[in-house]
Amino acid sequence: MPSIxxxxxxxxxxxxxxxxxLLPALVVYTFFMAYxxxxxxxxxxxxxxxxxxxxxxxxxxxxxLFKDPQISExxxxxxxxxxxxxxVHMIVQNVLGLLFANLLTRKGLKGSDFYRTVIFLPAxxxxxxxxxxxxxxxxxxxxxxxxxxxxxxxxxxxxxxLGEPSTALITISLVxxxxxxxxxxxMFLAGLQNISxxxxxxxxIDGASRGTVFWKIKLxxxxxxxxxxxxxxxxxxxxxxxxxFAMENVNGAPQFSTDIMGTFFYRVGIAGQHPVGIPDRGxxxxxxxxxxxxxAIGVSLIMGIANREDRR
Amino acid sequence: xxxxxxxxxxxxxxxxxxxxxxxxxxxxxxxxxxxxxxSWRTDDVEQMDRVLAEFTKTHPGIEILFQPTNPPDxxxxxxxxxxxxxxxxxxxxxxxxxxxxxxxxxxxxxVTDVPGVQxxxxxxxxxxxxxxxxKSFAVPFVAVSHGIYYNKAIFAEAGVTVPETWDExxxxxxxxxxxxxxxxxxxxGDEWDIAEVVxxxxxxxxxxxxxxxxxxxxxKKKFNGPEVVALFEAMDSLQPYLPSGYxxxxxxxxxxxxxxxxxxxxxxxxxxxxxxxxxxxxWDVFAPPVPKKGxxxxxxxHADAGMTMNAATTHPEEARAFxxxxxxxEGARALADNLPTGFFPMSSNSISIPDAHANSxxxxxxxxxxxxxxxxxxxxxxxxxxxxxxxxxxxxxLTDEMTPxxxxxxxxxxxxxxxxxAQ
Lengths: 312, 423
Prior knowledge:
The complex is a heterodimer of chains A (312) and B (423). Chain A has 312 residues and is mainly α. Chain A has helices at residues 2-7, 18-43, 60-67, 69-104, 112-120, 127-138, 144-151, 165-180, 182-194, 197-205, 210-221, 223-238, 242-248, 261-271, 281-311; strands spanning 46-47, 55-56. Chain A has a two-stranded antiparallel sheet with strand order 1-2. In chain A, helix 2 (18-43) crosses helix 15 (281-311) and helix 4 crosses helix 9. With 423 residues, chain B is of the alpha/beta class. In chain B, strands 1, 2, 3, 4, 5, 6, 7, 8, 9 and 10 form a ten-stranded mixed sheet that branches. In chain B, strand 1 (33-39), helix 2 (45-58) and strand 2 form a beta-alpha-beta unit. Chain B starts with a helix and ends in a 7-residue tail after the last helix. The interface between A and B is large, with 42 and 45 residues.
């Protein structure tokens, strides 16, 4: 022990107190984040029916995931669905967030606190609540949406938004975007408020239009925030599970059209297929590992792009 | 450095103290034996507490705590508990392969010689919880039945009577639709119900009940034979009579459509009886109609739950006493009086059940054969399971993705991947 102390013993750094500040977070991180993550990596090379997967099988779980037509068809279908789910969030949720933030910082806007609260409110609710709420609104028998569309003469027969494979995934993505739009709004808002007022003043003196101010001043200065928002959206959507679970159950009804990687992982690795309900934890761990690798690559790509923009 | 050591030491002492404190607590209750019971019936806490209180009345030294798990997680949770040695002393056992697997892995006790098991139940009733050699791994506990709920007022208004054949059923549906009501309340939103309470409810009539099912399981009949095609055709024929937007209507929506008097008929199980207790119209149930006049009728009377004990329990005597009690006349009465409506005790000691609608369900069994849900005995053990194939096939014909013939072919092709009799 003393030898370590001596090695680290540089002037002004002889005190070990700093470790107490680090220790709680380090312990929590090690036991609840790093260990489970590494353990699930390890489990993806094992198989067995229960708690302790005991039989080492090398890459068999991965081979099954890609070669077994039953499993691989689902995996790639869900892979595609997850990208669609992510794309809708990027386009709808984040663009709307940027728009709202821009409107909220407009000078002379009355009641901006009220709008801010309204926009953020859905994000404070449980997804089970919003999922149920939207299921009611979209219900083809007594839902408000079909009633309104019918009254406006836009639609004759009630439409099963959540029952058609062609519309269900987009509908769910939009519900989720609606719920979380407050997050990017708040982040962009904070970013916009950080931009020095001098710049806007100078722009005004130069006679720049609103559009020019947005494209030439606000957007470039928001780049780091856009990077962070993109990373958060990416990570949250590739880990998403709850909104589908709440609105379409674990199978991603109808006909797996809303099945995403989160629900697939839940079925394979945690709950098993109804009514037997015995999971295949090894394959589940393999799915989780692949998702982790995908996320790691995606996040470093986005961060790389955002950092390059910074350095310019 | 010293500070760090001191800190770690304090932490260690504190943790040790906490653990030791926990131990002294559990040592206190040693006079009375307390057993835990695992279950997937989170809805039945009140009813089961009453049943268990009845047991404690005659066995004062034993108290049983009912600790149910969220239904979809039960199988996985129970296995985790059993493997990590924290399993309950007594527990609900799934029928057939799911339960059998836990017995073969050594977690369920052998209950073959528990008093009453051999005498209070016939072999057919024991079979869902018995091995091929006749060893019982659980005591038959409760069964559920399937049928078609109907609104008597709408039937009277539309001038229809209880149908006996499938054609009469469709004829009735047509008249009901003309009278401005939704003929059937069922939808596809939740997926499981179309398979369990529609397809598997009508299946025994089309494939010939228990004997018919055995013919498929022994490879004597083809899983895409004419009977199965007719079964998928029957599913398909319901499509015009389902509620508008049926593709997105879930189980709760269907319940609501029937309970509010908007739908005249509803395929469902006996467990829903209680839901319609307070509705302001007269209703009853009828058995799924047979394909042609003169065909023998069958009812899907499904072995839902067995009761078994943990092979590693620390109180085997007490756990056995409870299992034996279940099979006595006294135990059967406690179940009949206290189980939630629509769950039927299975012992031949069974006493009459108070609820009139529950009796209508039981009355359907008279003069008809009974069988469990088709997928349960053999078809759940592989991927894709027979359950999934029945469910996906039913949904496909009801959404015009497949013809009944294609659905039957997909059924046999899926099973053939792992199930020898289908190959």
